[in-house]
Amino acid sequence: AMRLESPQFQALFTPGLRGVAELFEKKNYELRIAGGAVRDLLSGIKPEDVDFATTATPAEMKEMFTSAGIRLINNKGEKHGTITARLHEQNFEITTLRIDVVTDGRHAEVEFTTDWEKDAERRDLTVNSMFLGLDGMLYDFFNGYEDLKNKKIRFVGQASERIQEDYLRILRYFRFYGRIAEKPGDHEHSTLQAIKENAKGLAGISGERIWVELKKILLGNHVNHLVRLMYELGVSQYIGLPLNGDLEEFDRVTKNVQNQCPKPMTVLTSLLKTKDDVLNLDLRLKISKEEKNLGLFLVKHRQDLTKAMGPEPLKPYQDFIMDSRETNTNSRICELLKYQGEEHLLREMQQWTLPSFPVSGHDLRKMGMSSGKEIGTALQQLREEWKKSGYHMDKEELLSCLKKL
Protein backbone atom coordinates (compact mmCIF):
# COMPACT_ATOMS: atom_id res chain seq x y z
CA ALA A 1 0.00 0.00 0.00
CA MET A 2 1.18 3.47 -0.78
CA ARG A 3 0.39 6.64 1.08
CA LEU A 4 0.73 10.07 -0.52
CA GLU A 5 1.89 13.03 1.59
CA SER A 6 2.97 15.55 -1.06
CA PRO A 7 2.56 19.35 -0.68
CA GLN A 8 0.16 19.30 -3.67
CA PHE A 9 -2.03 16.82 -1.81
CA GLN A 10 -1.89 18.80 1.46
CA ALA A 11 -2.86 21.96 -0.42
CA LEU A 12 -6.26 20.45 -1.26
CA PHE A 13 -7.36 20.55 2.38
CA THR A 14 -9.19 23.86 2.36
CA PRO A 15 -11.83 24.70 5.00
CA GLY A 16 -14.42 23.59 2.42
CA LEU A 17 -12.94 20.13 1.91
CA ARG A 18 -12.46 19.64 5.65
CA GLY A 19 -16.14 20.49 6.17
CA VAL A 20 -17.29 18.04 3.48
CA ALA A 21 -14.98 15.29 4.78
CA GLU A 22 -16.34 15.66 8.34
CA LEU A 23 -19.92 15.24 7.14
CA PHE A 24 -19.16 12.02 5.24
CA GLU A 25 -17.19 10.64 8.14
CA LYS A 26 -20.00 11.38 10.60
CA LYS A 27 -22.45 9.42 8.41
CA ASN A 28 -19.96 6.60 7.74
CA TYR A 29 -19.94 7.14 3.96
CA GLU A 30 -16.61 6.65 2.23
CA LEU A 31 -15.25 9.59 0.25
CA ARG A 32 -12.20 9.46 -2.02
CA ILE A 33 -10.57 11.60 -4.71
CA ALA A 34 -11.11 10.02 -8.13
CA GLY A 35 -9.74 9.90 -11.68
CA GLY A 36 -7.61 12.63 -13.23
CA ALA A 37 -6.86 14.45 -9.97
CA VAL A 38 -5.23 11.30 -8.56
CA ARG A 39 -3.13 10.94 -11.72
CA ASP A 40 -1.99 14.57 -11.42
CA LEU A 41 -1.19 14.33 -7.72
CA LEU A 42 0.89 11.19 -8.29
CA SER A 43 2.78 13.08 -11.03
CA GLY A 44 3.52 15.94 -8.61
CA ILE A 45 1.09 18.31 -10.34
CA LYS A 46 -1.55 20.34 -8.53
CA PRO A 47 -4.85 19.29 -10.17
CA GLU A 48 -7.06 22.00 -11.65
CA ASP A 49 -10.26 20.07 -10.95
CA VAL A 50 -10.83 17.58 -8.20
CA ASP A 51 -13.62 15.03 -8.54
CA PHE A 52 -14.75 12.91 -5.65
CA ALA A 53 -16.37 9.47 -5.50
CA THR A 54 -18.44 8.06 -2.67
CA THR A 55 -20.44 5.07 -1.48
CA ALA A 56 -23.35 7.39 -0.58
CA THR A 57 -26.24 7.53 -3.08
CA PRO A 58 -27.38 10.87 -4.54
CA ALA A 59 -30.47 10.77 -2.30
CA GLU A 60 -28.33 10.16 0.81
CA MET A 61 -25.98 13.00 -0.15
CA LYS A 62 -28.85 15.41 -0.74
CA GLU A 63 -30.39 14.57 2.60
CA MET A 64 -27.03 14.93 4.37
CA PHE A 65 -26.12 18.28 2.75
CA THR A 66 -29.59 19.78 3.08
CA SER A 67 -29.90 18.97 6.76
CA ALA A 68 -26.43 20.51 7.31
CA GLY A 69 -27.66 23.68 5.56
CA ILE A 70 -25.21 23.29 2.66
CA ARG A 71 -26.26 24.68 -0.71
CA LEU A 72 -26.60 22.29 -3.65
CA ILE A 73 -26.06 23.65 -7.15
CA ASN A 74 -26.62 22.43 -10.70
CA ASN A 75 -28.80 19.32 -10.37
CA LYS A 76 -28.17 18.25 -14.00
CA GLY A 77 -25.71 15.54 -13.01
CA GLU A 78 -28.03 13.92 -10.50
CA LYS A 79 -29.38 11.17 -12.76
CA HIS A 80 -25.77 10.09 -13.44
CA GLY A 81 -25.12 10.11 -9.71
CA THR A 82 -23.35 13.46 -9.33
CA ILE A 83 -24.19 15.99 -6.63
CA THR A 84 -22.46 19.39 -6.47
CA ALA A 85 -22.28 21.03 -3.06
CA ARG A 86 -21.02 24.57 -2.37
CA LEU A 87 -19.15 25.19 0.85
CA HIS A 88 -16.80 28.05 1.78
CA GLU A 89 -16.98 29.56 -1.74
CA GLN A 90 -15.89 26.26 -3.28
CA ASN A 91 -17.80 23.69 -5.36
CA PHE A 92 -17.44 19.98 -4.64
CA GLU A 93 -18.55 17.55 -7.33
CA ILE A 94 -19.20 14.17 -5.75
CA THR A 95 -20.35 11.10 -7.68
CA THR A 96 -21.78 7.85 -6.38
CA LEU A 97 -19.84 4.73 -7.38
CA ARG A 98 -21.42 3.26 -10.52
CA ILE A 99 -21.51 0.33 -12.85
CA ASP A 100 -22.61 0.61 -16.48
CA VAL A 101 -25.70 -1.47 -17.15
CA VAL A 102 -26.28 -0.59 -20.81
CA THR A 103 -23.93 1.34 -23.14
CA ASP A 104 -24.49 2.35 -26.77
CA GLY A 105 -21.07 3.74 -27.60
CA ARG A 106 -22.10 7.27 -26.61
CA HIS A 107 -24.08 7.18 -23.36
CA ALA A 108 -24.38 4.72 -20.52
CA GLU A 109 -27.23 3.75 -18.23
CA VAL A 110 -25.78 3.38 -14.77
CA GLU A 111 -26.59 1.59 -11.56
CA PHE A 112 -25.16 2.64 -8.19
CA THR A 113 -22.81 0.38 -6.25
CA THR A 114 -20.59 0.46 -3.16
CA ASP A 115 -17.86 -1.60 -4.85
CA TRP A 116 -14.82 0.59 -5.61
CA GLU A 117 -13.24 -1.95 -7.97
CA LYS A 118 -16.43 -2.18 -10.06
CA ASP A 119 -16.39 1.61 -10.49
CA ALA A 120 -12.70 1.59 -11.44
CA GLU A 121 -13.44 -1.13 -14.00
CA ARG A 122 -15.77 1.13 -16.00
CA ARG A 123 -13.20 3.92 -16.36
CA ASP A 124 -11.26 4.38 -19.61
CA LEU A 125 -7.50 4.20 -18.93
CA THR A 126 -5.54 2.64 -16.09
CA VAL A 127 -3.93 5.99 -15.21
CA ASN A 128 -7.43 7.47 -14.75
CA SER A 129 -8.86 4.58 -12.73
CA MET A 130 -7.25 5.18 -9.33
CA PHE A 131 -8.73 6.55 -6.09
CA LEU A 132 -7.02 8.38 -3.27
CA GLY A 133 -8.34 8.32 0.29
CA LEU A 134 -8.33 11.59 2.19
CA ASP A 135 -5.69 9.97 4.42
CA GLY A 136 -3.41 9.73 1.35
CA MET A 137 -3.95 5.99 0.82
CA LEU A 138 -3.87 4.94 -2.86
CA TYR A 139 -6.45 2.45 -4.19
CA ASP A 140 -5.24 1.11 -7.52
CA PHE A 141 -7.00 -1.96 -8.96
CA PHE A 142 -5.46 -1.97 -12.47
CA ASN A 143 -1.79 -1.04 -11.98
CA GLY A 144 -2.42 2.57 -12.98
CA TYR A 145 0.42 3.85 -10.79
CA GLU A 146 2.87 1.41 -12.37
CA ASP A 147 1.74 2.54 -15.85
CA LEU A 148 2.05 6.20 -14.84
CA LYS A 149 5.62 5.67 -13.59
CA ASN A 150 6.50 3.81 -16.80
CA LYS A 151 4.66 6.42 -18.91
CA LYS A 152 2.44 3.74 -20.45
CA ILE A 153 -1.09 4.41 -21.67
CA ARG A 154 -3.34 1.36 -21.49
CA PHE A 155 -7.07 0.78 -21.39
CA VAL A 156 -8.60 -0.78 -18.29
CA GLY A 157 -9.17 -4.46 -19.12
CA GLN A 158 -9.95 -5.19 -22.79
CA ALA A 159 -9.35 -2.19 -25.07
CA SER A 160 -12.18 -3.08 -27.48
CA GLU A 161 -14.73 -3.41 -24.63
CA ARG A 162 -13.75 -0.02 -23.18
CA ILE A 163 -13.89 1.62 -26.61
CA GLN A 164 -17.30 0.16 -27.44
CA GLU A 165 -18.71 1.66 -24.24
CA ASP A 166 -17.82 5.13 -25.58
CA TYR A 167 -16.04 5.53 -28.92
CA LEU A 168 -14.68 8.92 -27.88
CA ARG A 169 -12.21 6.93 -25.76
CA ILE A 170 -10.16 6.39 -28.93
CA LEU A 171 -9.36 10.10 -28.94
CA ARG A 172 -8.86 10.13 -25.19
CA TYR A 173 -6.26 7.41 -25.67
CA PHE A 174 -4.40 9.64 -28.16
CA ARG A 175 -4.75 12.70 -25.93
CA PHE A 176 -3.28 11.02 -22.85
CA TYR A 177 -0.60 9.37 -24.94
CA GLY A 178 0.48 12.89 -26.01
CA ARG A 179 0.41 14.02 -22.44
CA ILE A 180 2.11 11.17 -20.62
CA ALA A 181 4.09 8.88 -22.98
CA GLU A 182 7.79 9.64 -23.28
CA LYS A 183 8.32 8.74 -26.93
CA PRO A 184 6.20 8.16 -30.02
CA GLY A 185 5.43 4.61 -31.15
CA ASP A 186 5.29 2.99 -27.71
CA HIS A 187 1.85 1.39 -28.15
CA GLU A 188 0.64 -2.13 -27.49
CA HIS A 189 -0.19 -3.79 -30.81
CA SER A 190 -3.52 -5.09 -29.43
CA THR A 191 -4.56 -1.53 -28.49
CA LEU A 192 -3.91 -0.21 -32.02
CA GLN A 193 -5.78 -3.19 -33.44
CA ALA A 194 -8.79 -2.45 -31.21
CA ILE A 195 -8.74 1.22 -32.31
CA LYS A 196 -8.61 0.22 -35.99
CA GLU A 197 -11.51 -2.22 -35.65
CA ASN A 198 -13.67 0.31 -33.79
CA ALA A 199 -12.73 3.59 -35.53
CA LYS A 200 -16.04 3.65 -37.41
CA GLY A 201 -17.88 4.11 -34.10
CA LEU A 202 -16.58 7.70 -33.97
CA ALA A 203 -19.00 8.54 -36.80
CA GLY A 204 -21.80 8.51 -34.22
CA ILE A 205 -20.06 10.87 -31.77
CA SER A 206 -21.03 14.55 -31.86
CA GLY A 207 -18.61 16.98 -33.48
CA GLU A 208 -18.48 19.16 -30.38
CA ARG A 209 -17.19 16.26 -28.22
CA ILE A 210 -14.63 15.28 -30.85
CA TRP A 211 -13.34 18.84 -31.20
CA VAL A 212 -12.76 19.15 -27.43
CA GLU A 213 -10.44 16.12 -27.54
CA LEU A 214 -8.83 16.96 -30.87
CA LYS A 215 -7.82 20.44 -29.70
CA LYS A 216 -5.94 18.94 -26.76
CA ILE A 217 -4.21 16.38 -29.02
CA LEU A 218 -3.08 19.15 -31.40
CA LEU A 219 -1.38 21.04 -28.55
CA GLY A 220 0.12 17.95 -26.88
CA ASN A 221 3.38 16.06 -27.47
CA HIS A 222 3.97 13.57 -30.32
CA VAL A 223 1.27 15.30 -32.38
CA ASN A 224 2.83 14.33 -35.75
CA HIS A 225 3.03 10.71 -34.74
CA LEU A 226 -0.53 10.69 -33.38
CA VAL A 227 -2.11 12.38 -36.42
CA ARG A 228 -0.30 9.96 -38.78
CA LEU A 229 -1.62 7.14 -36.62
CA MET A 230 -5.16 8.50 -37.00
CA TYR A 231 -4.74 8.27 -40.77
CA GLU A 232 -3.16 4.80 -40.64
CA LEU A 233 -5.83 3.37 -38.34
CA GLY A 234 -8.74 4.87 -40.31
CA VAL A 235 -9.78 7.27 -37.53
CA SER A 236 -9.25 10.52 -39.48
CA GLN A 237 -12.17 10.10 -41.90
CA TYR A 238 -14.71 9.85 -39.06
CA ILE A 239 -13.57 12.97 -37.21
CA GLY A 240 -13.70 15.55 -39.99
CA LEU A 241 -10.06 15.47 -41.15
CA PRO A 242 -9.59 15.71 -44.93
CA LEU A 243 -9.15 12.35 -46.67
CA ASN A 244 -5.81 13.37 -48.17
CA GLY A 245 -4.51 15.67 -45.45
CA ASP A 246 -1.18 17.38 -46.21
CA LEU A 247 0.99 15.48 -43.72
CA GLU A 248 4.25 17.01 -44.98
CA GLU A 249 2.97 20.54 -44.42
CA PHE A 250 1.66 19.36 -41.01
CA ASP A 251 5.17 18.15 -40.05
CA ARG A 252 6.70 21.44 -41.17
CA VAL A 253 4.20 23.63 -39.30
CA THR A 254 4.27 21.62 -36.06
CA LYS A 255 8.04 22.30 -35.98
CA ASN A 256 7.44 26.01 -36.69
CA VAL A 257 4.93 26.47 -33.87
CA GLN A 258 6.88 24.64 -31.17
CA ASN A 259 6.96 26.75 -27.98
CA GLN A 260 4.89 29.48 -29.69
CA CYS A 261 1.53 28.64 -27.99
CA PRO A 262 -0.40 28.37 -31.29
CA LYS A 263 -4.17 28.06 -31.39
CA PRO A 264 -5.32 24.49 -32.17
CA MET A 265 -6.83 25.73 -35.44
CA THR A 266 -3.44 27.10 -36.56
CA VAL A 267 -1.89 23.65 -36.21
CA LEU A 268 -4.86 21.88 -37.80
CA THR A 269 -5.04 24.21 -40.82
CA SER A 270 -1.69 22.86 -42.03
CA LEU A 271 -3.48 19.58 -42.89
CA LEU A 272 -6.08 21.46 -44.94
CA LYS A 273 -5.39 22.29 -48.57
CA THR A 274 -8.39 24.36 -49.62
CA LYS A 275 -11.18 26.59 -48.38
CA ASP A 276 -13.56 23.61 -48.83
CA ASP A 277 -11.50 21.56 -46.37
CA VAL A 278 -12.14 24.26 -43.75
CA LEU A 279 -15.88 24.31 -44.51
CA ASN A 280 -16.13 20.50 -44.35
CA LEU A 281 -14.26 20.48 -41.05
CA ASP A 282 -16.73 23.03 -39.70
CA LEU A 283 -19.70 20.90 -40.83
CA ARG A 284 -18.39 17.89 -38.90
CA LEU A 285 -16.89 19.53 -35.80
CA LYS A 286 -19.07 22.65 -35.36
CA ILE A 287 -15.99 24.77 -34.68
CA SER A 288 -16.56 28.34 -33.50
CA LYS A 289 -17.00 31.18 -35.98
CA GLU A 290 -13.66 32.63 -34.89
CA GLU A 291 -11.89 29.28 -35.46
CA LYS A 292 -13.48 28.86 -38.87
CA ASN A 293 -12.45 32.39 -39.92
CA LEU A 294 -8.90 31.80 -38.70
CA GLY A 295 -8.74 28.59 -40.79
CA LEU A 296 -10.03 30.41 -43.88
CA PHE A 297 -7.58 33.28 -43.29
CA LEU A 298 -4.56 30.97 -43.00
CA VAL A 299 -5.51 28.90 -46.05
CA LYS A 300 -5.91 32.09 -48.07
CA HIS A 301 -2.80 34.01 -46.95
CA ARG A 302 -0.18 31.45 -45.82
CA GLN A 303 1.55 31.61 -49.24
CA ASP A 304 0.97 35.17 -50.43
CA LEU A 305 1.43 37.22 -47.26
CA THR A 306 5.12 36.88 -46.38
CA LYS A 307 7.90 39.04 -45.00
CA ALA A 308 9.52 41.74 -47.11
CA MET A 309 13.17 41.66 -48.09
CA GLY A 310 15.19 44.58 -46.79
CA PRO A 311 15.12 46.61 -43.58
CA GLU A 312 11.36 46.36 -42.85
CA PRO A 313 10.43 42.66 -43.07
CA LEU A 314 7.27 43.19 -41.00
CA LYS A 315 5.82 45.85 -43.30
CA PRO A 316 3.54 43.62 -45.47
CA TYR A 317 1.87 42.30 -42.31
CA GLN A 318 1.49 45.78 -40.83
CA ASP A 319 0.05 47.09 -44.09
CA PHE A 320 -2.44 44.23 -44.11
CA ILE A 321 -3.57 45.11 -40.58
CA MET A 322 -3.84 48.82 -41.39
CA ASP A 323 -5.93 48.10 -44.51
CA SER A 324 -8.19 45.65 -42.73
CA ARG A 325 -11.50 46.76 -41.32
CA GLU A 326 -11.77 43.80 -38.91
CA THR A 327 -10.93 44.01 -35.22
CA ASN A 328 -9.08 40.72 -34.76
CA THR A 329 -6.79 40.89 -37.81
CA ASN A 330 -3.86 41.51 -35.46
CA SER A 331 -4.28 38.20 -33.65
CA ARG A 332 -4.76 36.34 -36.98
CA ILE A 333 -1.52 37.82 -38.30
CA CYS A 334 0.26 36.59 -35.15
CA GLU A 335 -1.09 33.07 -35.81
CA LEU A 336 0.10 33.35 -39.44
CA LEU A 337 3.61 34.28 -38.25
CA LYS A 338 3.62 31.24 -35.93
CA TYR A 339 2.44 29.06 -38.83
CA GLN A 340 5.26 30.42 -41.03
CA GLY A 341 7.87 29.90 -38.29
CA GLU A 342 8.72 33.62 -38.12
CA GLU A 343 9.54 33.60 -34.42
CA HIS A 344 11.58 36.81 -34.46
CA LEU A 345 8.94 38.76 -36.43
CA LEU A 346 6.21 37.41 -34.14
CA ARG A 347 7.96 38.95 -31.13
CA GLU A 348 8.21 42.28 -32.95
CA MET A 349 4.58 42.10 -34.01
CA GLN A 350 3.46 41.42 -30.45
CA GLN A 351 5.19 44.62 -29.33
CA TRP A 352 3.89 46.74 -32.22
CA THR A 353 0.96 49.00 -31.44
CA LEU A 354 -1.42 50.03 -34.14
CA PRO A 355 -0.59 53.67 -35.01
CA SER A 356 -3.55 55.95 -35.53
CA PHE A 357 -3.82 57.96 -38.73
CA PRO A 358 -3.02 61.56 -37.72
CA VAL A 359 -5.20 63.42 -40.25
CA SER A 360 -9.00 63.80 -40.08
CA GLY A 361 -11.66 65.23 -42.40
CA HIS A 362 -11.87 68.15 -39.96
CA ASP A 363 -8.21 69.05 -40.75
CA LEU A 364 -8.98 69.11 -44.47
CA ARG A 365 -12.05 71.31 -44.00
CA LYS A 366 -9.84 73.80 -42.17
CA MET A 367 -7.69 73.86 -45.30
CA GLY A 368 -10.74 74.91 -47.32
CA MET A 369 -12.03 71.58 -48.68
CA SER A 370 -15.80 71.26 -48.54
CA SER A 371 -16.91 68.43 -50.84
CA GLY A 372 -17.22 65.07 -49.11
CA LYS A 373 -15.94 63.28 -52.19
CA GLU A 374 -12.86 65.50 -52.40
CA ILE A 375 -12.11 64.96 -48.69
CA GLY A 376 -12.51 61.19 -49.07
CA THR A 377 -10.07 61.06 -52.02
CA ALA A 378 -7.54 63.27 -50.24
CA LEU A 379 -7.67 61.14 -47.07
CA GLN A 380 -7.10 58.01 -49.16
CA GLN A 381 -4.07 59.57 -50.89
CA LEU A 382 -2.63 60.71 -47.56
CA ARG A 383 -3.14 57.24 -46.10
CA GLU A 384 -1.06 55.79 -48.96
CA GLU A 385 1.74 58.31 -48.33
CA TRP A 386 1.60 57.56 -44.60
CA LYS A 387 1.80 53.84 -45.33
CA LYS A 388 4.83 54.34 -47.65
CA SER A 389 6.59 56.20 -44.83
CA GLY A 390 6.17 53.17 -42.56
CA TYR A 391 3.48 55.09 -40.60
CA HIS A 392 6.08 57.63 -39.41
CA MET A 393 4.82 60.88 -41.05
CA ASP A 394 2.99 63.18 -38.66
CA LYS A 395 0.05 65.50 -39.35
CA GLU A 396 2.19 68.48 -40.46
CA GLU A 397 4.26 66.41 -42.88
CA LEU A 398 1.14 64.82 -44.37
CA LEU A 399 -0.71 68.10 -44.80
CA SER A 400 2.28 69.75 -46.46
CA CYS A 401 2.51 66.67 -48.66
CA LEU A 402 -1.12 67.27 -49.68
CA LYS A 403 -0.18 70.61 -51.21
CA LYS A 404 2.26 68.80 -53.52
CA LEU A 405 -0.23 66.06 -54.53
UniProtKB/TrEMBL annotation:
CDD domains recorded: NT_ClassII-CCAase
Domain tRNA nucleotidyltransferase/poly(A) polymerase RNA and SrmB- binding residues, every copy: 189-239
One GO process term, biological-process aspect: mitochondrial tRNA 3'-end processing
Matching Pfam families: PolyA_pol, PolyA_pol_RNAbd
Keyword match Nucleotide-binding: yes
Entry's family note: Belongs to the tRNA nucleotidyltransferase/poly(A) polymerase family.
GO CC annotation terms, alphabetical: mitochondrion
Name of the protein in its database record: TRNT1 nucleotidyltransferase
Key words of the record: Magnesium, Metal-binding, Nucleotide-binding, Nucleotidyltransferase, RNA-binding, Transferase, tRNA processing
Organism the protein comes from: Eudromia elegans
Keyword Iron-sulfur: no
InterPro entries: Bact_CCA-adding_enz_type3_sf, NT_sf, PolA_pol_head_dom, PolyA_RNA-bd
Cofactor(s) needed for function: Mg(2+)
Coiled coil: none
Poly A polymerase head domain mapped to chain residues: 31-154
Taxonomic path: Eukaryota, Metazoa, Chordata, Craniata, Vertebrata
Any one GO molecular-function label of the UniProt entry: tRNA binding
